[in-house]
Amino acid sequence: MALKSCQRALFQVLQSRISGNSLGARAVLLRNMSSDSPLNYNYETLAVTQPKDYVKQVEMNRPEKRNAMNQTFYREMRECFRQLAVDGDCRVVVLTGAGKMFTAGLDLMDTMGLFSGDLEVGRKAMALKQKVSEMQESYTVMEKSLKPVIAAVHGGCIGGGLDMITACDIRLCTQDAWFQIKEVELGLAADLGTLQRFPKIIGNDSWLREIVYTARKFSSDEARERGLVSGIFETREAMLEGAMEIASLIASRSPIAVQTSKASLLFSRDHGVPDGLNDVTTWNASMLQSEDLMKAISAAMQKSEPTFSKL
Prior knowledge:
Layout: H1 2-15, H2 22-34, E1 46-52, E2 55-60, H3 71-85, E3 92-97, H4 108-111, H5 121-144, E4 149-153, E5 156-158, H6 160-165, E6 170-174, E7 178-180, H7 194-201, H8 205-214, E8 217-219, H9 220-226, E9 231-233, H10 236-251, H11 255-270, H12 273-287, H13 291-302
Parallel strand pairs: 2-3, 3-4, 4-6, 5-7, 6-9
Antiparallel strand pairs: 1-2, 7-8
Helix pairs in contact: 1-2, 3-5, 11-12
């Protein structure tokens, strides 16, 4: 047990290269070496379940508020995905929304509290910058975990919802889903990731600028045409079934191979080809020695399905 814990911890240290946070890497190492206790997923704004082997479903759970994102939600997203990153029973996450729509975006009434107080303008600006950075991390944490996240969108996906799904690996939606980068309509620029990640997802800069500057809604068909989503389903139930099918297939693969692939994709997104090639050799210098490689090859030769150990 101790050996497996150390191996898992070392892998998480390698994961931390994505964020460049050496202190965070050491913290993960110490935490994983010290305890194998079950993780607690009790949250106020999120409902976490395990519908399939190695698949966790994280559902935004404020249906009465159309899953509007308050400060509790942002804190719990950070806590939840940091736990998922080190959960040996999780290899893939499916992100959903409860109720009639995926999310209405930022909870405006809750957010107004960020502007209260009698601080002078410079100090208030510093406090706001810190708070917005924390909110950004609530989505970036999904990338840092290296476990693929599948966003399953139904109904509206507004404002902060776009920030969130652009940080996911795979995006699916229902036929009646619609999307809106709403921030310009409210008198500000989107600042939680849409303007940074969206251009790297789609290949049409002109269309992106149009929907950002106008803040107009766009449909599921337009989202697929432009490359934001990869699949459209007639109903929410069909979409969830499709998402779980994809998640289960990913979960059946070597977790080392999947997470190494995600790490390389993320690194290469933000670096040139030579740097990306060098980075993947560093990963594979370790991963090519993994038992997963031998298991996969052996299973292929025997025409059977391999079973991979937990990280």
